[in-house]
Design brief:
2 domains, five-stranded mixed sheet, alpha/beta, 11 helices, elongated, Udp-n-acetylmuramoylalanyl-d-glutamate--2,6- Diaminopimelate Ligase, Chain: A, domain 1, 13 strands
């Protein structure tokens, strides 16, 4: 797989979503030469020095992530770029387009939790995020759902029961930093039994209680991991000779 073929793959899978968001802000690549023959791809949510070290040890040629190294973490992006060059590893990241793709972060998480129907596709409209909504095949207790989330994410999650209904079935989701009360209001207005995301604030916890909306919060990293995995699997389907490997980040949040 060379850069031209990879670029065509990304354009084919994301289409108009690439046009909605600016390259080098929401997606882009580092250290990816036109003649590079990529046969091993490592995937994870974040680009960090630790992830690059894992990739180097696994002899990965391309790291596929949801997030680029954050520029506001002073010095870390420069260090990541140095390490990528030093190890001869390419990097591609895709942020918002992956969040809003049909196979992206929100839908992939909903399917992991047992949803058999996507009631509302997550989207970006009029400069605002629209949550994804999924429905489980059968209602479950809130405690059962918490256990499923913890098991699938591989981490202990935070959860608040804010109403007396014994069963839940409809889940509103925005992975990552979906702690805005505007997003939670969308879930309430749509009749969701629970709202799930990857970060919390005192305001989001208070608001969920105020409106009587059950609330589950995992980590930013692992609520978004399934979308990156879905993309990596699609890459493997398109390029059978490419090996994919998960670069396993720590549960540190």
């Amino acid at each position: 797989m060379q850069k031209q073929g990879f670029n065509a793959f990304i354009r084919d899978r994301f289409g108009h979503l690439l046009d909605m968001f600016q390259e080098n802000e929401e997606y882009g690549c580092h250290n990816f030469g036109d003649s590079d023959d990529i046969r091993s791809v490592g995937y994870t949510t974040n680009l960090t020095p630790e992830v690059i070290q894992l990739a180097a040890e696994a002899k990965v040629q391309l790291i596929l992530t949801h997030h680029d190294a954050w520029g506001f973490m002073h010095g870390m992006k420069a260090e990541c770029l140095r390490l990528l060059e030093a190890h001869g590893i390419a990097h591609f990241y895709i942020h918002y387009p992956l969040d809003f793709a049909e196979f992206g972060t929100c839908n992939s998480l909903l399917y992991e939790l047992g949803a058999n129907e996507i009631v509302q596709q997550t989207a970006f409209k009029e400069q605002a995020e629209i949550i994804g909504i999924g429905r489980l095949a059968e209602p479950v207790s809130f405690e059962q759902l918490i256990a499923t989330v913890s098991r699938q994410l591989g981490e202990e999650v935070k959860a608040w029961r804010n109403n007396a209904n014994p069963l839940v079935r409809t889940i509103g989701v925005l992975t990552g930093a979906g702690h805005s009360t505007d997003l939670m209001k969308q879930a309430k207005d749509a009749g969701c039994d629970v709202y799930m995301t990857g970060e919390k604030t005192v305001y989001s916890v208070q608001y969920a209680k105020f409106i009587g909306l059950n609330h589950i919060v995992g980590s930013h990293t692992f609520t978004e991991m399934f979308g990156v995995r879905s993309l990596a699997c699609k890459l493997k389907e398109a390029f059978a000779d490419v090996d994919i490997i998960e670069l396993k980040e720590e549960h540190f949040e």
